[in-house]
Batch of 3 targets.
Target 1
Amino acid sequence: MRATVSLVIASTIALGLPLPAAAQDAVANFYKGKQVSITVGFASGGSASLYAQVLARHMGRHMPGNPNFVVQHMPGAGGLLVTNHSANSAPRDGTTFTITDRAVPLEPLLGNPNAKFDARKFGWVGNANVEYTTCIAWHAARVKTLADAFTHELVVGGTGAEATAVIFPKAVNKLIGTKIKVVPGYPGSTEILLAMERGEVEGFCAIGWTFVKLRKGDWLRDKKINVLFQMALARHPEIPDVPFIPDLAKTPEDRQVFEFLFAPQEFGRAFFAPPDVPPARLAALRQAFERTLKDRQFLDDADKAGLEVQHVGGDEVQTLIERIYATPKAVTERARTIAQ
């Protein structure tokens, strides 16, 4: 009987259907009076933290048992620290889930010995927004356009060595010949943007277009920044004239590397639970996540915080992860050498 129930729950998760009543009751009994932690791989103030904080204020209403949600920040190694924690140390009972840098799931494929996880084994809860990453330069920098970056050095801020803010500009340097110097070690995007204003660095090559337009719209209006290029699997329709890096690849093989590295943009603000969370609780988290992202109060709160919301189901994120992990080894090996 237990095997039959597990099969029904697994099918429910895959199809995105409501849980059977008995499973709902069991999940509600488990979560009642409990606290659910959303762990964030960066310091407070950045986009990942904001998504987690707004989610935490509303998701409890949509979870069976109505548990309390709290946000915990665990910055380090560009989001790798919190990912390893989720894979190896966090409770596997459905009382915690995580958001980290979108490039971190690639780290095992890139040969990083410090990546102690297999992203296919996480319980992907869902994605709050598809990301289109841009590279921006402060108005005082000598580099005003992508063309300038081929002849003049641009000093940009980075987080950990495994993060998008470091990997992406390195790949652009090696594959199309720009002169971008990355200064790593910043806890997150908030600190990098402050460093730009202070003149410590000249740019940031891993900031979402959504973040720029919604939270730094005054910078665009007052021409305090120049948007040099965009990095994703497709151009953002709002910035069609901003250079699109995959189109600048010199060979089909180079484009494959870019597409592999940029694939995580499709789950830009994805949340995941540790491996082996009981299926009924993972299903409840996925369902509550989806309902929260469609909740009017949540959407109003997100709008006030300058956050764009696009729901992608956990099953879709899981499928994308499986596709990325099936990338031919020749491509991942080349990406590994380029990202170093």
Target 2
Amino acid sequence: MLRSVYKRAPRLRAAVRGVKNAAVYRLVQAAFAALSLGSFDRAMARAELVGELAYRCLRGTRRLALEHLGMVFGDELSPSDRREIVRRSMRDFAKSFCEMARMDDVRARFAEYVEITGWAEARESIDRGAIVCTGHLGNWEVIAPYFTEIEKIRVAAVARRLDEPRLNQLLVDFRARLGIETILRDSPSAGRQILKILKDRGLLAMLIDQDTKVASITVPFLGHPARTPVAPAALAVRRRLPILVAYNYRRPDGGIRLVMEKPLWPDETLDRDAAVRDLTARVNELLGQAIRAHPTQWPWWHRRWRRPPQPRLDPDATIL
């Protein structure tokens, strides 16, 4: 009864969302403050404990993650293996948040903390700029700072505007301090900003492993049809640019290994719509392979397959 009343009351829903968003902002502020205390290693240890606590307390989140693991791996994993993957995933997710809070410490030790593979070949393909596609694998917020700090390459991240303005500004300021430009998708200047970063032979970074309310097409992801943002492939096809699939995962001895896959170029033998679909599917395939190889590094609790497929969706007119 109460749920049906809530669904029919848009003002009430907006008010509740406002309270939730404000609470999240305060929580993030408090977490950043707590993680700034003590040494980096101690902060990372505290973050792991928080991740363990989340695993034990968030029953619904844990149940959804286990369900998704069953969808993807089937009988390949035992129930105990699935539980351990979810536990480690939550612990590592908390560690990624800690690394964001202590990014100055990470930057000071980039040389030994971040190991990169595949960059030599990828670099040869960015004479006209390139699109970097990644997912929430490992600590995705480390990828862009590595290139601005070590490789001295201009990077811009395309992102949605967060519902909580203060939290949105916190993230924009965080990235700006690391030399990363944030391009908000709903900004009137987004198109000009995207073209400018590519003209300057920079990297345009996009996260595409979640079902978000953007122009999408349905292609396989981890063996199941999934609505996937189409902007990277549409832009690559229209401007004949490569897509660099990048991801990272935690090394057993500490630190992060950043992997750059071989550049993916649009198939020029296909018409535009088919080329966009083909390129999006190839990006998803590489990200899916990385997640299968490092399952503890991906947030399995995201509702990746929450909306039904729309195989005839044609959003290309909205893309540059």
Target 3
Amino acid sequence: MRITNSIHPTAIVHSTAKICPNVHIGPYSIIEAGVEIGEGTVIGNHVTISGNTIIGKNNKIYHSSSIGEDPQDMKFANEDTRLIIGDSNLIREFCTINKGTSQDKNETRIGNNNWIMAYCHIAHDCILGDYIVMANSSTLGGHVEIHDHAVLGGATLVHQFCKIGAHVMTAGGSGIQKDVPPFVITHGNFAKPIGVNSEGLKRRNFNDNQLSCIKRGFKVIYRKDNSIDQALKELEFLANEEEVIHLYIDFIKKSTRGLIR
């Protein structure tokens, strides 16, 4: 069976754009030069995908989104930077995702199987892992890192250069000004750590011993009045009992803005 693309006659697709088989492009969408779209991806109506954007397979981008536009950075001077989006991502209505800047890695990168809800903004040089959920109107400043399986509640605001660890869950309206370690639930503006994302971890098949050690690790960081160095020493000891504690350790060692408190 011959697989063909479905491109609406009102869509504007630059002749140099690379469109793989079985791609759907809806009415009035604009695909600029330098764009690559992988097999099975669906682009809704009134979507603009700007140059130097590479989109993988089986993504769905809903109407009125702006993908790969110039960064909102006053230092940007039309350098050759890009946006890379992986496979099987769902990007809902009115999302804005900007490409990178030369002051960082020259690219914004989004992994696989992410769910980005309506009105979300992902600024320049952000790095997102896999299986992340960004609820409606969540906003990432420039240079933010979000690790795998993190869930951002609606209208979560993340300050530039912050890191959010794996399996984190932020309550709606959280204002993130510092780094959030793995497994933590946050609440408030400015966001405070309020516990471990136990339900999320159970759904991802963490066992009882892993959950127990993760909770003990949270207490080491937040309930024992430890300095960061003291916490790391205790976490190293705890990691001998459970390998998953290394997620805490590696994250804290790479933190640049300090941890939420």
